[in-house]
């Protein structure tokens, strides 16, 4: 996590982050208003610029924070003993889902980052902060022998990742809109339905769910 955000009181930090994520997501950088950010964060403009020298620096630090937030959450919570690819991807999706619950505009801000940044530049930023984490998530200690031999393994892995990423984002988005409490078990049960279908499509017959 960026040092600037680390040095702010956690409760105040989350107010600033959520307010900035919302403002930048809704209005893009040029039209985003620091007046709206400080108003919704319930802080003074002077305090905001005590932490950040300019709106541009706030935006850049928010980009770094967003990437590092996901990296830290995965590193701290992932179970590397899981060898099933579906379970590994589901676990990552659930971790991201909890982050979106804490920071409701995180996903919208990430989408904006993708739209406004070249794929190569975004990949470079992520790799600089995460190192080989992405490769490790989807390859370390995974039992690939469970997959059917007649499919394109890389394509199958991509489809599975996309499915769970979208599932996590949409599920958490719907939950936030209804303002219900986060029900981890319910979300896991919904994820299991997708796992059952995908296992039937990509795993050898003897590996399908009962």
What labels describe this entry?
210 residues; Arc Repressor Mutant, subunit A; 11 helices
* Share of β-strand residues: under 5%
Using only CA atoms, what is the Rg?
Answer: 19 Å
- Which spans have pLDDT < 50 for at least 5 consecutive residues? none
- Written as H for each helix and E for each strand, in order along the chain, the element string is HHHHHHHHHHH
- Total of domains: 2
Number of helices: 11
Number-wise, the strands total: 0
Task: Please state the overall shape, judged from the principal axes of the Cα atoms.
Answer: elongated
Question: Structural class from helices and strands?
Answer: mainly alpha
């Amino acid at each position: 996590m960026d040092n600037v955000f680390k040095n702010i009181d956690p409760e105040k930090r989350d107010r600033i982050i959520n307010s900035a994520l919302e403002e930048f997501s809704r209005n893009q950088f040029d039209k985003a208003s620091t007046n709206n950010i400080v108003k919704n964060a319930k802080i003074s403009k002077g305090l905001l610029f005590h932490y950040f020298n300019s709106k541009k620096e706030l935006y850049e630090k928010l980009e770094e924070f967003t990437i590092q937030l996901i990296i830290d959450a995965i590193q701290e919570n992932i179970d590397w003993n899981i060898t099933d690819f579906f379970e590994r991807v589901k676990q990552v999706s659930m971790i991201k889902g909890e982050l979106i619950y804490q920071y409701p505009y995180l996903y919208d801000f990430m989408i904006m980052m993708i739209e406004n940044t070249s794929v190569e530049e975004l990949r470079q930023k992520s790799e600089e902060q995460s190192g080989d984490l992405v490769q490790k998530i989807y390859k370390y200690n995974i039992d690939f022998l469970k997959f059917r031999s007649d499919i394109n393994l890389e394509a199958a892995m991509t489809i599975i990742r996309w499915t769970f990423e979208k599932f996590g984002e949409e599920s958490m988005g719907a939950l936030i809109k209804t303002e219900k409490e986060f029900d981890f078990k319910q979300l896991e049960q919904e994820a299991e339905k997708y796992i059952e279908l995908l296992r039937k499509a990509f795993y050898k017959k003897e590996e399908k769910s009962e």
